[in-house]
Amino acid sequence: MTIVDDQGRTEPPIAADETATLLGFLDYQRSTLAWKCAGLDAAALAATVAASTMTLGGLLKHLAYVESDWFSRALHGLDCDPPFDAVDWKADPDWEWHSAAEDTPEQLRSLWEDAVERSRGRVAEALAGGGLDQLARRTWPDGTAPSLRWILCHMIEEYARHNGHADLLREALDGETGE
């Protein structure tokens, strides 16, 4: 049975196999970010709170990059997707955060939504080719590589952490609150 909450998010399954549970929680976190950024104009997506330079637009662009980095570059050994493939990350390691202010809300949402869709396809491909135990093609400096299971858990953590930031930013913008 599929349960959809008041914000349109599909609840993760409560009694499913490991793969469906991990993918359910990742999609729930993705939907939470979409909810927190919904209906905002360019000024709202570029607004900061207190001393932080973090913005909701920056979060969208950062998480689009993280999707590309983990599911394209790490898992499949591909180059990062555009526009991230053309960035000089050594010269500007926070490029996605500050360059988001130059993008329209439509560009930011599209960039993130497209990255999520590509990631879903790449995860499905990896599941079909090796399951959750499949190791990433990009190894760490010590030669080890995380499994797809580890990457999915990391992505859930990444979204959950940043959704906490999104909660604070959105509440400061217009008073919108919620989990």
Distance between the termini: 22 Å
Largest sheet: none
Determine the mean pLDDT. 94
Alpha-beta classification: mainly alpha
Question: Tags for this entry?
Answer:
mainly alpha; 179 residues; globular
Furnish the topology, listing elements before pairings.
Elements: H1 18-37, H2 42-46, H3 56-76, H4 95-99, H5 105-130, H6 148-174
Helix pairs in contact: 1-6, 3-5, 3-6
Structure description:
- By secondary structure, this protein is mainly α.
- The protein is built from six helices and no strands.
- The two termini are 22 Å apart.
Task: Summarize it.
The chain is an all-alpha fold. It has helices spanning 18-37, 42-46, 56-76, 95-99, 105-130, 148-174. Helix content is 58%, strand content 0%.
